[in-house]
């Protein structure tokens, strides 16, 4: 056969056995073609019988080698079959004990379902390990009984199942993996998003005598090497007295999994040594972009199931809507969920607990405008209702936390011991505060939202909010720090409409703030139902998440402020006409080049300041300030006949309903916050007053507080010399209209490295070294026009207030006053 024919056969996809001689001949020809000339000459010199002998020798050698490979293949095949048989045998044994029988006399865990009679297990009953769980729980954690779905999750953990557990804040998620970790050989890996959470967990576990470690980017190199060496020894089963006891829990951040090849190699050794008991992923909703706290490195945790397919995974979350749950299962490569009360063998066991916690009693109380009065009210509340009890006071900014802590301790004459917690507090002081708070040496922690995540203190009897939270999600989480032991606890929010502007100025996220305002403004609907409706709409959670054994989601709780409020303490009013008036007045002001804050609109609508407002006078090339007076009768059919507090409440209600919106105006140093007509405003402003009065418009309902027929509460006497009172009073007296920022060229504060404050650092650094300007101590006098601002500039010398009509030299000023009618005509008047 010719050489070309041989090559054609050689490159075909299939080579038959009878083509082997041709291939050998072709290979020899190719070899000869590429051989040196001297070799060819030597080959040509050999007789043909010698050449055949050489070829036969090579063929024999290859045949022996092929036979050796075939023998290895036969041995490997036999070994593979043996391993498969052993695996099948182990699988059968595993399946026989997988759904272990419960303890005798305590129920039947095994059930059958459907025509296939598929076995299912109820993990909520007792098993043969239940007594050991109960004894260990009491001995180590001093907990006598399981709460919510803790028992079922622990049982499924002991059974080596993949689990998704959704429990509310304070429900006791940590126990569901810490307790099984103590009874299971090996180490439990816990992946957590916050260093502060891990630090607190480690502190608590070590206090209980549990071997727990933490590995982060900030772990000192000597400690890092020591921990890795201990884990390596565990993997090799060489734990001895010198290296210490077996590590039961190892906490890491998701970044450690995603970026450290060394650590992943260490985990692989633990798996090979049978020492990686389970993987726990806390705050698992962070893996989903549809979750409210997405973190990219969480998505990289999918490699855990890829590299360690037989290590059980426990995913934990406080809120996990259906779409987020499906995303989590996909990312973590977990199988579809099955019910924890009837779990088939093949699936991820799902547990959930109602988000409603009946032991928490919610109250939204009227917040006075005076800082000293608020401090006195909070101090009296603690002394009268929670003397000696542990509690938390959440504040908006770091400076507020410090002032509130100092003032409450001073006002109470030291009877209330307070501590301060925020991102700028040194780690050593934070740890000391944790210890003092747990031991009762500090009664109340005044803190920003940096405090609370993972804080494992069950007997917190009250959580007070000095100012509204930045979102209703945040408020639910923060207030949920109370009553983790299942006993009654109070959640009190101090609220006044002016806080809306301050919070909006810092967060600049209208929707989040408006949801919080809607909750605070409501004085009729049960707080439980308000939470249920919000989470159902915002997170697509089923209303069943708020259903308990005792009540349905839409049943009133019967113990919140709105369920227990006396009818004569609130007035539910149709305020559509007043809302129309406010919009008309605001529309007239804007058409003349003016802008108003909440306080400014409230005062102008009541005719304060002579019913006039200023325009111009700001920035370069602007006209001089000009006062324009409104003709209320022609513009809005008269002044608004509500009190200042009621008008401000109505303005906030209009913000929530989108009849008004916040308008932010930024300069090099300030962010000014005004109110402007919203996208719903035209529904009213296009109508006449007569149309609105006669009901030919959308109706705006608003609730107003009434105190036994009075609209104002009695003032509380407080020592004005109390440290921090004057400073704090300036910070909350009226709610902001301007926030001053530091120039970009010069930073007046250091970057915050504590990740706990990552959501609020911008806001808090904004106010970290600030003072209040133009703030009255109290706006109880309705005739006072209150406005305020934050400033990072040095304080200006105090100036004597000028009397009306005088300029800087005390000479009567030349007035330029305009009168604004319904046609927006401006008439200039002179006064000498």
From TrEMBL:
Chief subcellular location: nucleus
Taxonomic path: Eukaryota, Fungi, Dikarya, Basidiomycota, Agaricomycotina
Taxonomic source organism: Rhizopogon vinicolor AM-OR11-026
Reaction catalyzed: Couples ATP hydrolysis with the unwinding of duplex DNA by translocating in the 3'-5' direction; ATP + H2O = ADP + phosphate + H(+)
Name used for this protein in its record: ATP-dependent DNA helicase
Family from the record: Belongs to the helicase family. RecQ subfamily.
Keywords from the UniProt entry: ATP-binding, Coiled coil, DNA-binding, Helicase, Hydrolase, Isomerase, Metal-binding, Nucleotide-binding, Nucleus
GO biological process, one term: double-strand break repair via homologous recombination
Entry-linked Pfam families: DEAD, Helicase_C, RecQ_Zn_bind
EC number: 5.6.2.4
Region Disordered, residue ranges: 790-810
UniProt domain Helicase C-terminal: residue ranges: 369-547
GO MF, any single term: ATP hydrolysis activity
Domain Helicase ATP-binding: 154-338
NCBIfam families: recQ_fam
Stretches assigned to coiled coil: 52-93
Enzyme kind, highest EC tier: isomerase
Keyword hit for Transcription regulation: no
């Amino acid at each position: 056969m010719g050489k070309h024919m041989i090559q054609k056969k050689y490159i075909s996809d299939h080579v038959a056995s009878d083509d082997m001689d041709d291939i050998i001949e072709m290979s020899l020809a190719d070899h000869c073609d590429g051989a040196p000339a001297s070799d060819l000459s030597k080959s040509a010199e050999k007789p043909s019988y010698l050449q055949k002998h050489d070829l036969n020798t090579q063929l024999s050698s290859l045949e022996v080698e092929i036979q050796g490979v075939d023998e290895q293949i036969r041995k490997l095949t036999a070994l593979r079959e043996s391993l498969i048989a052993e695996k099948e045998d182990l699988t059968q044994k595993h399946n026989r004990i997988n759904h272990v029988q419960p303890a005798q006399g305590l129920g039947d865990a095994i059930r059958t379902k459907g025509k296939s009679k598929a076995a299912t297990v109820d993990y909520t009953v007792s098993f043969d390990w239940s007594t050991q769980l109960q004894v260990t729980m009491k001995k180590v954690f001093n907990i006598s009984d399981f709460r919510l779905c803790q028992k079922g999750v622990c049982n499924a953990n002991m059974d080596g199942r993949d689990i998704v557990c959704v429990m509310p804040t304070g429900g006791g998620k940590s126990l569901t993996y810490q307790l099984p970790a103590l009874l299971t050989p090996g180490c439990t890996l816990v992946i957590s998003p916050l260093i502060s959470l891990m630090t607190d967990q480690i502190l608590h576990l070590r206090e209980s005598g549990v071997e727990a470690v933490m590995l982060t980017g900030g772990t000192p190199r000597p400690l890092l090497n020591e921990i890795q060496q201990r884990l390596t020894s565990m993997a090799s089963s060489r734990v001895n007295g010198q290296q210490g006891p077996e590590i039961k829990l190892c906490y890491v951040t998701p970044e450690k999994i995603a970026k450290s090849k060394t650590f992943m190699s260490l985990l692989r050794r633990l798996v090979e040594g049978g020492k990686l008991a389970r993987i726990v992923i806390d705050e698992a909703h962070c893996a989903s972009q549809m979750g409210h706290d997405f973190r990219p490195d969480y998505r990289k945790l999918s490699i855990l199931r890829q590299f360690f397919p037989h290590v059980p995974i426990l995913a934990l979350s406080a809120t996990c809507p259906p779409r987020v749950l499906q995303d989590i299962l996909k990312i973590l490569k977990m199988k579809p969920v099955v019910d924890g009360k009837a779990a088939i063998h093949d699936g991820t066991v799902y547990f959930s607990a109602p988000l409603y916690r009946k032991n928490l009693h919610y109250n939204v109380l009227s917040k006075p405008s005076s800082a000293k009065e608020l401090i006195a009210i909070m101090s009296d509340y603690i002394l009268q209702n929670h003397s000696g009890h542990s509690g938390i006071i959440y504040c908006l900014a770091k400076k507020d936390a410090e002032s509130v802590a100092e003032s409450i301790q001073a006002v109470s004459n030291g009877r209330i011991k307070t501590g301060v917690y925020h991102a700028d507090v040194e780690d050593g002081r934070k740890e000391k505060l944790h210890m003092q708070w747990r031991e009762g040496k500090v009664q109340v922690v005044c803190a920003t939202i940096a405090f609370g995540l993972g804080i494992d203190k069950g007997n917190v009897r009250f959580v007070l909010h000095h100012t509204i939270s930045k979102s209703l999600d945040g408020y639910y989480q923060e207030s949920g720090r109370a009553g983790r032991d299942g006993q009654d606890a109070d959640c009190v929010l101090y609220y006044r409409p002016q806080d809306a502007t301050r919070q909006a100025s810092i967060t600049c996220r209208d929707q989040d703030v408006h949801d919080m305002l809607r909750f605070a403004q409501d004085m009729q609907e049960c707080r439980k139902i308000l939470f249920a409706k919000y989470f159902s709409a915002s997170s697509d959670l089923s209303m069943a998440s708020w259903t308990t054994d005792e009540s349905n989601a839409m049943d009133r709780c019967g113990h919140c402020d709105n369920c227990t409020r006396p009818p004569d303490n609130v007035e539910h009013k149709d305020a559509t006409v007043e809302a129309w008036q406010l919009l008309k007045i605001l529309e007239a002001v804007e058409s003349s080049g003016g802008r108003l804050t909440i306080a400014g609109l409230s005062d102008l609508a009541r005719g304060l300041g002579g019913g006039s407002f200023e325009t111009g006078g700001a920035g370069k090339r602007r006209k001089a300030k000009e006062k324009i007076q409104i003709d209320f009768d022609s513009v809005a059919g008269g002044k608004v006949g509500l009190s200042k507090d009621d008008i401000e409440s109505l303005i906030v209600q209009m913000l929530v309903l989108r009849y008004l919106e916040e308008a932010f105006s930024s300069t090099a140093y300030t962010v000014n916050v005004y109110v402007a007509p919203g996208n719903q405003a035209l529904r009213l402003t296009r109508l006449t007053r007569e149309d609105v009065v006669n009901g030919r418009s959308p109706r705006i309902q608003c609730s107003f507080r009434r105190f036994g027929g009075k609209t104002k509460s009695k003032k509380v006497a407080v020592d004005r010399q109390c440290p921090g009172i004057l400073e704090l009073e300036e910070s909350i007296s009226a709610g902001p209209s301007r926030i001053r920022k530091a120039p970009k060229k010069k930073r007046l504060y250091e970057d915050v490295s504590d990740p706990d404050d990552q959501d609020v650092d911008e806001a808090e650094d904004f106010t970290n070294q600030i003072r209040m300007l133009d703030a009255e101590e109290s706006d109880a006098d309705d005739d006072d026009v209150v406005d305020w601002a934050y400033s990072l500039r040095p304080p200006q010398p105090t100036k004597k207030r000028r009397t009306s009509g005088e300029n800087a030299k005390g000479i009567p000023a030349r007035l330029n006053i305009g009168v604004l009618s319904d046609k927006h005509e401006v008439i200039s008047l002179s006064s000498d």
